[in-house]
Every structure is written in C-alpha cells, then in structure tokens.
From TrEMBL:
A Pfam match: Pyr_excise
Superkingdom of origin organism: Bacteria
Name this protein carries in UniProt: Pyrimidine dimer DNA glycosylase/endonuclease V
Organism: Tessaracoccus lubricantis
Length: 149
C-alpha cells in the first residue's frame, strides 16, 4: 500500500488508479471493515488525526479530483459519508524527497515520457498535507520492502 503524500496530479495513469484503489482499502481498514492491513505503517499519520475517516475522505477527494481533471470518472460514492474537512497532516521534506525519488524511479520504467516532463520540477504535495522540516518518516519502510512498492 502506498498512500502518496505527493499531489495526485504527478502520478501516471497506473499510479493514479492504484492510489485510488489503495486509498479505498485504507478507508476500509480505518473504518474497521477488514482484518488485513490493520497495522500497516502508511496508516499511522491518518490514525494520528482527530478524525481519521474525514482525513481519508479528503485524501480520496484529492485523488478523485486529479482523476476528473484527466477525464476519468472515479466513483465518489465509494467515499464514506463523513465530513470532508480535516486538519492538515505534517509531512517532512525528507519524506517528500523520498517519495519523489520513488515515483521518479517508477516512472522511468512505466511512463518514461512523464518522467522526462517532471525532471527538474519541484514536487508538490496533496492538499491534505503541509510540508515541514525533517527526514524520512519513521513509518516509512526501506526501499525494496513490500511497503515501498
């Protein structure tokens, strides 16, 4: 599961659809609807908010907005009916840099033309996040682990 801090507009088609699917799974986990993935480290920052399901709804809305901008129709009815307001979640500069490098490596294989367009660009983050100083998040797993996929 990869819940990108990066703005979903930076993702390629495969990344955007995977982000939607994985965020829906995360929503299900946070709602107590599955036994799997309950200890997944990517969920730490959502659980740390006052309203984890509202935070996930905002996260999913951001992905759906990026999809709509490309002409895709993600089914927003799958987002739980919770308030769509949430506190900003801090994401460190180091985490953003880690995710940016991870995304660029994926794009080099999957979508080289997009990688070329993004080369030299500054990464932006999903509207749910606020960039703060710091290194890679403690919940992030090292490259090559199942979470880093």
């Amino acid at each position: 599961m990869r819940l990108w801090s990066l703005d979903p507009s930076l993702l390629d088609r495969q990344g955007l659809t995977a982000a939607w699917r994985e965020a829906l799974l995360a929503q299900k986990v946070l709602a107590g609807g599955t036994r799997g993935y309950v200890h997944h480290p990517q969920l730490v920052r959502f659980r740390a908010t006052a309203a984890p399901l509202s935070s996930m709804a905002v996260f999913l809305d951001g992905i759906a907005d990026a999809a709509a901008a490309r002409g895709y129709a993600f089914d927003r009815s799958r987002i739980l009916d919770v308030p769509r307001t949430a506190e900003l979640i801090d994401v460190s500069e180091g985490q953003v840099a880690f995710e940016w490098a991870h995304l660029m490596a994926k794009l080099a294989v999957r979508s080289p033309e997009l990688r070329v367009r993004l080369t030299g660009a500054q990464p932006t983050v999903h509207r749910l996040f606020r960039v703060v100083r710091g290194g890679v998040a403690g919940w992030e797993r090292a490259a090559g682990s199942p979470t880093a996929r």
